[in-house]
Design brief:
Blueprint: E1 6-8, H1 15-34, H2 48-51, H3 56-69, E2 72-76, H4 83-92, E3 105-109, H5 115-125, E4 130-135, H6 142-159, H7 161-166, E5 168-172, H8 178-186, E6 189-192, H9 206-214, H10 219-235, H11 242-257, E7 261-266, H12 272-286, E8 294-299, H13 308-313, E9 318-325, H14 352-369, E10 374-379, H15 384-405, H16 416-425, H17 432-442
Helix pairs in contact: 1-11, 1-15, 3-9, 4-9, 4-12, 10-15, 11-15, 12-15, 16-17
The structure holds 5-phosphoarabinonic acid (PA5).
Residues 78-81, 136-138, 141, 144, 198-200, 284, 412 line the site of 5-phosphoarabinonic acid.
Length: 443
Amino acid sequence: MMKDMTFDYVSAVCTDKMEQQKHAVLSAKQVLTCGTGAGNDFLGWLTLPNDITSQISDIQATASLLRRECEVIVCIGIGGSYLGAKAVNEALLSSFSCMENKVPAVVYAGQNISEDYLYELQTLLRTKKFGIICISKSGTTTEPALAFRLLKTQLEKQQGKDAARQLIVCITDKQRGALRTLATQEGYKTYVIEDNIGGRYSVLSPVGLLPIACAGLDIQALIDGARRMQDVCYQADFAENPALLYACARNVLYKEQGKKVELLVNFHPKLHYVAEWWKQLYGESEGKENKGIFPAAVDFTTDLHSMGQYIQEGERTLMETVISVAEPEHEVIFPKDEQNLDGLNFLSGKRVDEVNKMAELGTMLAHVDGGVPNMKITLPRLNEYYLGELIYFFEFACGVSGYMLGINPFNQPGVEAYKKNMFALLDKPGYEKESAAIKQRLS
Ligand code: PA5
C-alpha cells in the first residue's frame, strides 16, 4: 500500500481549538457532499476522478497523435483553463526541459494580452510544426480568443487548412459557446467541459489532462492519486482527514487570530505554478462579500532573501502552509574542497536535500517563533500520483472552507468588473452606455 500525503497543523493551532470547530467543519462537509449549499450546480468536480476514467484512453490517443506530429504544442487558455495543466507540467518536467530539445515542447498562450509575448511566440512557431489545444469554456474570453485567432491563422498559412484541422483540438462547453460553434463548423477534435465544473476545479477533466498527457506525463496515475484522496476526504474521520483539518485550521487562524494572509510555501521551484493554481482556487472561491483569506505564495529558500524579513518581523497577519517533499527524485552529494575557502566542508558528503530540509525546519521554527503559524503538507515524492492527491485535497478543502466562511465557493461575480470597463473602453458593440459613462469619468 502506498503512503498518502499528510497534513500537519500542530505548529499552527492547538488540538482543543480544532475540536471546538469540529461540528462546523463536519456540517460544511455535509453541505458540500450532499449538494445542499450555494453553488451546488457546480459540484461535478467532486466525482471527476471516477467520472473521467472512461475518457482517459481517448485523451491519451489524442496526446499521442499531437506528440507524434508536432514539435511544439501550444495550450491556449487562461485562469482555470490553463493553470492546472501548467502546475502539473512544471512540477514534473525537468526544470530545464525547454533547453533539452525534447519533442514536443508544450508552451502556453492566451493567458495575457502582451503584444511582445504573442510576437515572440509567433516568431518561434514560424519555423516549427506546431499544434494547438484551445481551452475556453465560454469560448468568448478575450485573452484566449485573441491568441487562438492569431495562431489558427498562422497554422493554416503554414500547413494549409486541411492539415491544420488535424492539429487543432478544442476543449469547451457541450453546446452553447462560441468555440463549440467554430469547432463544429471546422470539424476539430473536441472535448467537453461539463456545465457543472467551474474553471478552477477543472484540472482533472480534459482541460488539464490533455495538456498534461501532451507533456508525456502519466494522467492515469494522476487520476489514481485523486481517486485515493477522494476516498480519504469522503470517508476518513475528522482527526484523520487532511482536507477537513486544513479547512478547519485555516479558518481558526483567520477568524480567531486575525491571520488574513496565507502564504503557500515551497522549497522546490518546480512547485511555483502549483502555488499559482492554488492562488486562483482559493482567491476566486473565498474572496467575496468583503471576506476571505488572501492567498499568496513564496518560493524558498529564494524568497527568504527577499521576503524573509517581512515574514519574520512585519505585520502579524500571516500564516504559512508549507508543501514539503519527503524524497527528491535525484541525488546530488556536496563535494569536499581542499582549500575550503567558503567554509562549507562541514557539509561535504551530505545530500543537497539534507541542507534544504534543515533550511525548511529552521525556517519553520523561526517563523513560528516570530508569530507566523505553520501548517505543513508532506508529499512522499513529487510524482503524478501525489500531485493527484494534492489537487483533490486542495479542491475538497476549498469547498469545505468556503462553506465555513459562509460564502458561495463556486461563483466569481467579481471578475466581471474589469471586463466591463475594458470592453467599454474598447467600444465593444453592446457597451455604448458603459462607454459613454467611462469616457465621461476619465475626461
Ligand atoms: O475559474 C474560472 O471560472 C475562470 O478562471 C475561467 O476558467 C477563466 O476565466 C477562463 O474562462 P473560459 O474557460 O470561459 O475562457
